[in-house]
Structure of Protein nucleotidyltransferase YdiU:
Amino acid sequence: MKISNTYLQLGTAFSESINPLPVADPHLLLWNQSLADKLALSQGLPDNENALAQLFSGNDLLPEASPIACVYAGHQFGQFNPQLGDGRAHLLCEFVDDHQQRWDLQLKGSGPTRYSRRGDGRCALGPAIREYLMSEALHALGVPTTRCLAVVTTGETVYRDLPKPGAVVTRIASSHIRVGSFQYFAAKGDVVSLKTLTDYTIDRHFPTLKAAANPVLELLGAVMDKQITLIVEWMRIGFIHGVMNTDNTAISGETIDFGPCAMLGIYHPGTVYSSIDSGGRYAFGAQPSICRWNMARLAEALLPLIDEDPDKALAQAEALIADFSPRFEQAYQTMLGAKLGLDEIQQTDVALITELLEQMQEQQLDYTQTFHQLTRSLTEQQIATKLQDTLGDWYGQWRQHIGNDSKQQQAAQALMQQSNPVVIPRNHHVEAVLQTCELTNCSAPADALLKVLRSPYQMLAETADYQDLPTDNDRHYQTFCGT
Ligand SMILES: Nc1ncnc2c1ncn2[C@@H]1O[C@H](COP(=O)(O)OP(=O)(O)OP(=O)(O)O)[C@@H](O)[C@H]1O
Ligand SMILES: [Mg+2]
């Protein structure tokens, strides 16, 4: 394992050097062997659970690691906070895998730092397992995401609304640079550090842009494209992030921070589960426009580097941000078309898609199941008849769009099978697993759910156990920024 600490080397303005605070009694609860294998991590790590628990609780450190807490700022629910940062996380080190890809290895829940404010620097076990389950589910679904290598219980109690068992989660990300990282330096007027961070980001994530006429403007465009891809993917599977603050928007385009996230059941764009999102700012259907808003905040932060002339910088940034909506719309319609087996979207297809979404909303149909049933209906007459009853004329029109030819139908079904999961991490199942794991301190329920979630486009023998809808259709479901 080739370890380095390049973010530390950016200088003291970017982070605080600080070691994790040791925990009382670390035990390895979840270990992601397939991720360790994929990143060729195992060679550099101990092979026994106790030693891994010591390492991934922060009690032991890899010899070459120099842990830091990174500083950032961020708009939280629209309000700018100039000083945030890793208040309960330690970036242990970076490592480079066999494909020359650099990764961050970070602990979360590993103790207080300069940026903790009133927080205790710790993480409860439930949210740690949620981050592990949800990020693995997203990864298997094909959605860009940070991932978890381990969850270690600490043997300590953390106090939230109630006393909870504590945990440390190990996160692997292609970096932890956030929109808020740029905002921090921009708000301070520290253009030198802003430039250092920008050069570092281009070098690390978008090296080909170095040769561009205006690399900073190109960086903004590249980040925007990655974010569009990400949000379209969230919309495809019904993921509601829940707290799309600019400090939770990674430049890499990976999903980060699973605090109050949830999955959409019954289709409604206004769906919100987060207890603190009373205004619905981060509702399912608001995610595209919030993403655009976040990209505008990144553009603002980068203005001094886009052009020396502020008017010219603003004009160029505005032109790019104005392009967000058409770029998004195209990717979004293409994605929805694929969910309906249509590989090229015509104007009439757009109307068909919109009509289906309207019907799903009116009839309170489940998002995942509807698309799964539509997929199956191409080869199963019983399901086709049922859907004809539910969706009326729309169903026949859709079948006409696909065509009568058996080759066309096969191609459509293949496309739909790749676009429509048979199973998602439904909120009630995730909650049940978290509760049982918390009570029993045992990983078996999480392992069983993960087995199914790791093959989300395939019916395994156990898949049916996790496909059902909650009895109350999640009407009473709430998530918390559960730190
Ligand atoms: N228990 C805690 N102790 C100290 N700081 C905390 C705690 N919980 C959250 N924070 C800090 O509050 C801010 C907002 O928290 P948020 O829940 O968005 O992030 P997070 O889940 O801690 O981390 P990340 O975004 O890296 O996944 C962050 O700066 C975070 O470090
Ligand atoms: Mg966060």
